[in-house]
Amino acid sequence: MPLRIGLVSPYPWDVPGGVVAHIGDLAEELLARGHHVQAIAPVDDDDAPLPHYVTRAGRSVPIPYNGSVSRLLIGPVSQTRLRRWLHDGRFDVLHLHSPETFSLSLLAMMNARGPMVATFHASAPRSRILLLLQNPLQLYLERLSGRIAVSSAARKTIVDHLGGDAFVVPNGVHVGRYARAAPIPGLPRPGGTLGFVGRVDEPRKGLRVLFDALPVLRKEFPDLQVLVAGPGSIDAVPPGVTVLGRVSDADKARMLASVDVFVAPNTGGESFGIVLLEAMAAGAPIVASRLDAFAQVLQDGRLGELVDVGNPASLAAGCAALLRSAERREALREAGRVAVMRYDWSVVAGEILRVYETAIAASTGVVEEDPVEIDTAALESTIGL
Amino acid sequence: MAVRLLGVAAVLAVVAMYCRYTARRLDRLHVRKDVAAVALDGQLRLRCEAVLELARELRGGIGDELRALAEATSQVSGLDHDREVAENALSVALTRLAGTRPTVFLSPSAAAVAVHDDALRAAIARRFYNDTVRDALVVRDRMAVRWLRLAGHAAHPAYFEIHDEELPTPAISVATRPSIES
User: Which of A229, A320, B46, B178 places its Cα 20 to 30 Å from the Cα of A314?
Assistant: First the structure.
């Protein structure tokens, strides 16, 4: 039986990001299965084109959170739009994303009753703000029928900071789109090509570490080239490195299908590692930092080479080991292609639907607006906006 | 004197408001736990039935063992310790089946698909139920709540702990999936 599903995004729909991409993919997968899906999100640009299922909640406000700036939203206008959306949607289940942030998701959790689930995307080893908010948040977290964590690292953050537990459903990837991507003409080439995906000016993505590893690698592989895909600007680009800038998903897939080794030198802040799954789906052998989330996706090194975090020498050694051995690369490609099927949206959406059905069984009634409206002005002054 | 009386009255009013508010919150939490318990119980029953169905098609000792365990489990009701022991034995047996004969789940019959599905749903329902227990206990364990007996006669909530089996998911062919490219 088709469900009426409401999805709430904490981040602006028109600013590219992992959580928004996840919500969009999930919405499309659920729509393709015949469910009724509506999403609500902040939208910064009034002229931004939106998918038919997205409702605008207003503009977002930048807030520093978890080491970077989050564009979140809160306020009386968004509350009015949110409550109307809840009322008109008549949802069987409401799915909030990252409700622990000061965002539309938190506002939705405060304004709705009935079957509600939330996905926690973040993993923070120790978040002072979350610990501080544990008590006031608890009152509202009690409304959730259930919680989803995207990885065991994200689940641990919930257990440590908020108490309670969460069911782990990993992020999804459209394996077929990546598996079908054709390599860029002229690649792979004999000298070897490395690939990097991510914001070039975000230190935690670790492009710097890769650049520092290049001189070592060049001694053994003088013709080595590096393809870098991602937004942002850098001043000094070493020789042999091509910065492609922001690319479409289709071009990202082609890039991943073209490289000999995909490098993920991230130094932190990753709760999942969707980019590793995309690389696996496209058939790229992987060298990645030994972050908890990455080690889990790569099954402790069975599906890719794990190297020391922030260590150029270790990164160079990991890349060299793969560049030297075509057999090892082929073995990783094969293992990755099989393992990544567990993360295909066909599997992941099925699990999320089971979570919805369980939430509906474990709650009474349908989603409706809470009679009590939140005093958003008081809330804003409390958090010091 | 009048000021002192007013002060006492104000303190009593605040205490009364706290009691009323907390008692209501506890009531909500207990209802939520009870509904989640019904959902968990129902899902465990479905898993049990699915295992019985699968046991019928399995040859050898494991089929007999699963049937015996599922029949024993279906005799236990409630979410108490006995149920935990019975359901846990069933989970452990399913995990062993997945280990020794993975093909049962990798190229599954309709019955094996049902076991996989119901086991996953039971694991989700268990997580959700335990969350409701935990939320109720957080409030119940407050000193003021215990002293003032704000929880009333509601039974003390208990976690339901069993081993979650990990059954292999059959590989899906990318080619046969419905495409949802825009």
Answer: A229
| CATH number 3.40.50.2000 is the correct assignment for the domain at A4-172+344-383 | yes
CB < 8 Å from A in window 7-66 of B: 25, 28-29, 31-32, 35-36, 38-40, 42-43
pLDDT band at A311 (very low <50, low <70, confident <90, very high): very high
A119–chain B Cβ distance below 8 A for any pair? no
Element (H, E) at B123: helix B110-140
Kindly report, as residue ranges, where domains of CATH 3.40.50.2000 are found in chain A. 4-172+344-383, 175-343
Burial of A104 (0-12, 13-18, 19+ CB in 10 A): buried
Residue B40 predicted with pLDDT over 90: yes
0.90 exceeded by pTM: no
Q: What's the CATH code, domain A175-343?
A: 3.40.50.2000
Contacts of A29 in chain B (CB under 8 A): 180
Q: Does A145 touch chain B (CB under 8 A)?
A: yes
CATH number of B27-148: 1.20.1440
Supply A339's token pair: 């393992």
Check: CB of residue B97 under 8 Å from CB of residue B104.
yes
